[in-house]
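#structure-requests
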Amino acid sequence: VNSLDEVIVVAYGEVKKKDITGSVSIVKGEEMMKTASTSLDQALQGRAAGVYVTNNTGAPGSGVSIQVRGIGSIARSNEPLYVIDGIPLDNTQIANPQTGATGDKINPMANINPEDIESFEVLKDPASCAIYGARGANGVVLITTKRGSSGKNVVELSSYYGISKVTHTLDLMNSRQYQQLVYEGLRKKRTPLARPLYISDEEVEKYDTDWQDAIFRNAPTYNLNLQARGGNDRATYSISGGYYNTEGVVINTGFERYSLRANVDLKLTEKVKLGTSLSLARSEGQRQRNSFSSAQADNHKQTGGPVVMSALTSSPVYPVYDSLGDYGIDLRNKAIANPVMLAKEQSLDYFTNRVIGNAYLDWEIIDGLTFHTLFGTDL
């Protein structure tokens, strides 16, 4: 009974759950926070029936693909429309020019702190999202942020810490096995990768580099969020600040976010109510080039190739660093750069600043008829 009496946000307003005739999935904020998520779209993964969430890459803060009503377009986006507190959001995933058009993309939804979310309502059928027209063709995700309530002042501090690690690496040749492969190739005049020359026993005994171990690491993640909310019968408020930092399992990768949100509601008279929501966020990220293009292939070492692919194809018979502390170089195959050098010397950093704000006015003209106006921006 209590569940059926829940008030659910839909395109045209709010209705009780038992009166909904369209297809709507509801996810509460506390459900999302049971798992650590970088962005709010990632937090939807596995939480709503019929909503398919896929991480495009493993990079921290990277793009996430969501399909609510399947694939409806070949050349255009299949992403749903996001609406936060009544304001449609720009969810265009931006290609980092340094990683190429097909490389890792920057996820704009990663600028929003998942801990500010009260609930998600995913509108899946045409009737539910008709008010949004063509923009709602792929479904609509309505996001409601936390607001204060009268007579109850609450201060919450939440945090968590975790470690990410690579659970499985490929079984590659060690130096002795690679030497044997080279011998076999030379004898049969079918040389292995990039025609390597003779490898001496001294080199095999001196170097046996595991390049996967060299580029991968145990990566910490930590999150801190402070929120205060409350109010009285005339005014309510909710103010929160958050800090999130996660390092990637590939060295020199990571994502960091600072966020601040303020929601204020004022009851001027019994019939007139106004309020505002303001969200400020700054995110910074470090990426690696892990996709491959012909332009990068032309000058692999200078432009920087895919770090993980380089680790899988580099010879184990040369070191990460030489005796002088410089990056080791594979003299037999200069086309493949030192994977650690690629990871540490490429500068693929980025930052984004985002402001999402709105102001609304409600005027209850008569019982059952309310005039609602809303102005907002997403910068």
